[in-house]
Amino acid sequence: DTGVSQNPRHKITKRGQNVTFRCDPISEHNRLYWYRQTLGQGPEFLTYFQNEAQLEKSRLLSDRFSAERPKGSFSTLEIQRTEQGDSAMYLCASSFSPPMGAFFGQGTRLTVV
Amino acid sequence: RKEVEQDPGPFNVPEGATVAFNCTYSNSASQSFFWYRQDCRKEPKLLMSVYSSGNEDGRFTAQLNRASQYISLLIRDSKLSDSATYLCVVQFSGSARQLTFGSGTQLTVLP
């Protein structure tokens, strides 16, 4: 499968714990995006990489969130001290530069209890 | 005001009907436009790009009106399998390169 891959698919964690998600983009794509989606809403932008450089980070993103893309390949998104409001689907997408439309992974569904 | 706005619907149409969705965007310096389809509890999937001259892909036609800052999606001869949420997506020019999504329009095609 050469699509965007995300792991884990589901994560249940207790409030206050740290979680980390991984995204493996389509190999030829140099752009990588992280989005968050809650029920009934469209995906909300979190952050964006071009190769290994993090070029944009949403103002809505608290400092509990951090993302990396070492060597411009896979990316990780870490949420520290999780809160119930962090419960959502976390989506990763990748594209060429300039974008011809981004392709999404199946997402990681996070539930904070 | 949201950067990308869509009528949330729901649109309930019979099989074979023609249905159209509109989407408006607030930033006139927008660069690229797309329609995505999202099935329940699945990831968004790229349906089609939207070009200034308008473009068609089978039963789907997308149009862009830069002067009025809206894009549209027309679905002809609706199929049951077209039932999904349709997301309007805009990429703004300038330093920001993220794709900005509307909240989606829900379509149900009825037998």
Structure notes:
Chain A is mainly β and 113 residues long. Chain A has strands at residues 5-7, 10-13, 19-24, 31-37, 44-50, 53-57, 65-68, 75-79, 88-95, 103-104, 108-112. In chain A, a hairpin with a 6-residue loop joins strand 4 and strand 5 (44-50). Chain B is an all-beta fold and 111 residues long. Helices cover 0% and strands 56% of the residues of chain B. Chain B has no helices and 11 strands. Chain B has strands at residues 4-6, 11-14, 19-25, 30-38, 45-50, 55-57, 60-65, 70-75, 84-92, 99-101, 105-110. In chain B, the strands form 2 sheets. In chain B, strands 2, 4, 5, 9, 10 and 11 form a 6-stranded mixed beta sheet that branches. In chain B, strands 1-3-8-7-6 form a 5-stranded antiparallel beta sheet, with no helix packed on it. Chain B is globular. In chain B, 36% of the residues are buried.
Task: Assign an overall shape of chain A.
Answer: globular
Largest sheet features of chain A: 7 strands, mixed
Task: Kindly state the percentage of residues in helix of chain A.
Answer: under 10%
Number of continuous helical runs of chain A: 0
Tally of alpha and pi helices of chain B: 0
Give the topology string of chain A: H per helix, E per strand.
Answer: EEEEEEEEEEE
Q: How would you describe the oligomerization state of the chains in this entry?
A: heterodimer
Low-pLDDT residue intervals, each spanning 5 or more residues of chain A: none
The total count of strands of chain B amounts to: 11
Count of distinct strands of chain A: 11
Rounded radius of gyration of chain B (Å): 14 Å
Q: What's the helix-strand series of chain B? A: EEEEEEEEEEE
Percent of residues in beta strands of chain A:
over 45%
* Portion of residues within helices of chain B: under 10%
Mean pLDDT of chain B: 91
- Mean of residue pLDDT of chain A? 93
Largest interface: A-B, 26 and 22 residues
